């Protein structure tokens, strides 16, 4: 067992194999540690995230883990899910060729197997299934597909799985199921959770498939919030469609759902304080300027996060400019336009009382990778402001203490080295620390794609890393050596090594870095394996 640093609040526990990983995960579920907020299991690692505000003794934590029995096999779950499958996959013949079996024998062995969900990731509802017939272990495709339909049953290595939504992938496709793997009308929303037992049953024809699909299609979606009386904002322009954001969905890793949420939490909380709301009330996260709306009644609004301003024209044509970090009252007929910021990237617009927006899995955050949450706000939409009783708007608020960056400027971000620093040469580590990295236009809420003159050099360019949990702020390095700095909508698991991870106190700042700005990384904690407080033999 190795315990590797990830960030100031996260560590990665590396084990010998999947069996040890599942045993330790089961132990931590049965005898939890109070400081742990969430655990993300993977093929041979556990990503452990500690609660904000806690200061865990990592050496005592290491000793606790090493004292646990990770040799015992986890008891089978009582929960069994059956997946009706039409074996019509376009790679079925290739799998037969790779395994030396006839296609019908591949199907027979797949149906005869009982799988277990080892861990989740990649997309909400996607489970990595283990325990199938070893004869069906086949390598991923050499060239991944850009589009795989939802419900596709697939194989890769020792794993089986079902794609819960349309997207890219490199697994071998052997069939399709009409079941919804992730359904917000269901509780829990995902069929596959760690420990769930899974069996596949064979559908003999398309008619049987279509009959089940019709039942699934008739399943109702989540109950919508009813109409609310109150002021509405009619959106007249949205060149970069804003997204609703709040504090996100922490604690749902078992469903394959990442936390998401506002990229700049401090600014979200600040704008809500300005208008008298609770800190995590949903607000609009707006990139750049040009967003405009007309109010059909009175409201109190404010913006925070950048140095943008609100230009307000009343029904008589009179103009007023309201700066950031100050609340302003609107009246019926007021037309409001967000001026483009010169510093920072994401502006948060809050309204007193909050917006009438439907939560999804307990949050109004729009997760761009998982495709969860409210749709982006577009021209022609009407946003209703909920009535607010009690509380008071604040006239002014101090701007963020850190200076928001502008294109062309250099931002210094603190990082903790790990968990996979050892995968890189000394020259590669030096490249990360000493070189300026430019934010490219391919950046989004999933992560900042950054480029440097010199790529980060690996020790073994051909080595492959089994998928493991990733943290917000992880600096993942693909084969080309040009890193991706993960942000709030990052995938739960990833297969490229993470050389370092942002310190939590700079996550908000990272969410405000515009395209064209440069990043310089400042190491505040070098890579070092976390040892127990007293010598303990490794299991």
Structure explained in plain terms:
This protein has 539 residues and is of the alpha+beta class. The chain has four domains: 2-66, Gyrase A, domain 2, CATH 3.30.1360.40; 80-218, Cyclophilin-like (Cyclophilin, Beta Barrel); 232-384, no CATH class; 410-525, Cyclophilin-like (Cyclophilin), CATH 2.40.100. Helices cover 14% and strands 29% of the residues. It contains eight helices and 33 strands. Strand 29 (474-476) and strand 30 (484-486) form a beta hairpin. The chain is globular and about 80 Å long. The model is unreliable at 221-227 (pLDDT under 50).
Quick structural summary:
It contains 8 helices and 33 strands. With 539 residues, the chain is of the alpha+beta class.
Short key terms for the protein model shown above:
single chain; 539 residues; alpha+beta; Gyrase A, domain 2; Cyclophilin; seven-stranded mixed β-barrel; six-stranded antiparallel β-sheet
Q: What is this structure's SSE topology?
A:
Layout: E1 2-5, E2 10-14, H1 18-30, E3 36-41, E4 45-50, H2 58-66, E5 80-86, H3 92-99, H4 103-112, E6 115-120, E7 127-130, E8 145-148, E9 152-156, E10 159-162, E11 167-169, E12 172-176, E13 197-203, H5 206-218, E14 232-237, E15 243-245, H6 265-275, E16 283-287, E17 292-295, E18 299-304, E19 309-313, E20 319-323, E21 328-330, E22 335-338, E23 346-351, E24 382-384, E25 410-417, H7 426-434, E26 437-439, E27 447-451, E28 468-469, E29 474-476, E30 484-486, E31 493-494, E32 498-502, H8 507-510, E33 518-525
Parallel strand pairs: 5-13, 25-33
Antiparallel strand pairs: 1-2, 2-4, 3-4, 6-7, 6-13, 8-11, 9-10, 9-12, 14-17, 14-24, 15-16, 16-23, 17-22, 18-21, 18-23, 19-20, 19-22, 25-32, 26-27, 26-33, 27-30, 28-31, 29-30, 29-32
């Amino acid at each position: 067992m190795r315990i590797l640093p990830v960030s100031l609040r996260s560590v990665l526990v590396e084990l010998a194999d999947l069996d040890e990983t599942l045993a330790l995960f089961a132990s931590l579920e049965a005898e939890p540690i109070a400081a742990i907020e969430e655990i993300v299991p993977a093929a041979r690692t556990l990503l452990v995230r500690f609660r904000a505000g806690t200061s865990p003794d990592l050496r005592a934590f290491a000793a606790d883990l090493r004292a646990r029995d990770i040799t015992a096999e986890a008891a089978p779950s009582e929960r069994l899910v059956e997946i009706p499958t039409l074996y019509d996959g376009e790679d079925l013949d290739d799998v037969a060729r790779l395994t030396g079996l006839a296609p019908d024998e591949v199907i027979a062995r797949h149906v005869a197997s009982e799988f277990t969900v080892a861990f989740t990731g990649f997309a909400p509802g996607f489970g990595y299934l283990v325990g199938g017939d070893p004869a069906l272990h086949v390598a991923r495709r050499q060239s991944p597909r850009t589009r795989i339909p939802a419900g596709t049953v697939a194989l890769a290595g020792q794993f089986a799985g079902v794609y819960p939504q349309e997207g890219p992938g490199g697994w071998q496709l052997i069939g399709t199921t009409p079941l919804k793997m992730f359904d917000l009308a269901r509780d829990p929303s995902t069929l596959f959770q760690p420990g769930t037992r899974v069996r596949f049953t064979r559908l003999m024809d398309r008619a049987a498939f279509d009959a089940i699909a019709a039942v699934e299609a008739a399943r109702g979606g989540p109950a919508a919030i009813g109409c609310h009386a109150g002021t509405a904002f009619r959106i007249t322009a949205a060149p970069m469609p804003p997204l609703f954001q709040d504090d996100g969905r922490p604690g749902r890793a078992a469903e394959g759902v990442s936390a998401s949420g506002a990229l700049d939490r401090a600014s979200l909380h600040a704008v809500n304080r300005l208008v008298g709301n609770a800190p995590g009330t949903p607000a609009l996260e707006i990139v750049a300027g040009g967003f405009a709306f007309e109010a059909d009644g009175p409201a109190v609004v404010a913006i925070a996060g950048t140095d943008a301003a609100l230009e307000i024209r009343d029904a008589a044509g009179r103009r007023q400019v309201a700066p950031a970090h100050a609340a302003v009252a609107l009246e019926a007929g007021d037309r409001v336009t967000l001026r483009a910021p010169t510093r920072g990237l994401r502006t948060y617009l809050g309204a007193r009382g909050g917006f009438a927006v439907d939560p999804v899995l307990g949050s109004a955050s729009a997760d761009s990778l998982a495709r969860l949450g409210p749709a982006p706000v577009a021209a022609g939409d009407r946003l209703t402001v909920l009535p607010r009783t009690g509380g008071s708007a604040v006239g002014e608020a101090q701007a963020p203490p850190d200076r928001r960056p502008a294109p062309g400027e250099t931002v210094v971000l603190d990082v903790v080295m790990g968990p996979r620093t050892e995968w890189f040469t000394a020259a590669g580590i030096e490249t990360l620390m000493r070189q300026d990295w430019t934010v490219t236009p391919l950046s989004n809420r999933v992560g900042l794609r950054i480029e440097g003159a010199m790529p980060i050099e690996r020790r073994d360019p051909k080595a492959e890393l089994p998928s493991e949990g990733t943290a917000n702020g992880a600096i993942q390095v693909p084969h080309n050596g040009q890193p991706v700095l993960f942000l709030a909508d990052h995938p739960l698991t990833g297969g490229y090594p993470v050389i370092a991870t942002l310190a939590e106190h700079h996550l908000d700042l990272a969410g405000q870095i515009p395209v064209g700005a440069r990043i310089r990384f400042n190491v505040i904690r070098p890579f070092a394996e976390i040892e127990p407080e007293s010598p303990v033999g490794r299991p």
